[in-house]
Specification:
The protein has 159 residues and is an alpha+beta fold. It has one domain: Endonuclease, Chain A (2-Layer Sandwich). It has six helices and five strands, in the order H-H-E-H-H-E-E-E-E-H-H. A hairpin with a 4-residue loop joins strand 4 and strand 5. Helix 1 crosses helix 2 and helix 4 packs antiparallel against helix 6. The longest helix has 17 residues.
Length: 159
């Protein structure tokens, strides 16, 4: 939901290479950017947690990563977005693992190397909400999150 077009383009290209799948990168990027329109709709709320490692991953050229990090600092403060960063220094109750999201307590979606799994049973949704709430306690928000992102941004210049 928060990726720049260039960052998303690199992500999609890497997955296409990994899976030997068709290169429909432009279509995928357009679809991802269209979804971002939801970020600006009043009444919506997106609560996002990222591990600090994602801020440093060189999956794309440094210029694209810098723009992505700038994008993340730009969404902090939007009424519709709560962005938390789990810093490397955070005490963790559970290890970070695969990405997932929960929609309206009715659906949990988890991502694996080869598939996006949609889980609709109450036990799975409850588990992912528990994981979410546990990781949320280790995250930093607002100015502290901006500081972690800015530190990652500065490290691009020093390497």
């Amino acid at each position: 939901m928060l990726q720049t077009a260039e960052y998303a383009r690199h992500i999609f290209a890497r997955y296409a290479e990994l899976q030997n799948s068709p290169r429909d990168t432009d279509e995928a990027v357009c679809a991802r950017l269209r979804r971002q329109e939801l970020l600006y709709q009043p009444g919506k709320k997106f609560r996002i947690i990222m591990w600090e490692a994602a801020l440093h991953a060189r999956i794309c050229p440094p210029s694209a990563l810098a723009a992505q990090l700038d994008r993340l600092t730009g969404v902090i403060g939007l009424d519709t977005v709560e962005l938390g960063i789990v810093p490397f220094s955070a005490s963790l109750k559970i290890p970070t693992a695969n990405g997932f999201y929960v929609l309206d307590d009715r659906l949990a979606v988890t991502e694996d190397w080869h598939a996006e799994l949609w889980l609709e049973d109450e036990d799975s949704i409850a588990l992912y909400l528990n994981v979410w709430n546990t990781l949320r306690k280790s995250a930093v928000y607002g100015t502290e999150a901006q500081n972690v992102i800015n530190k990652a941004r500065r490290s691009l210049c020093s390497s």
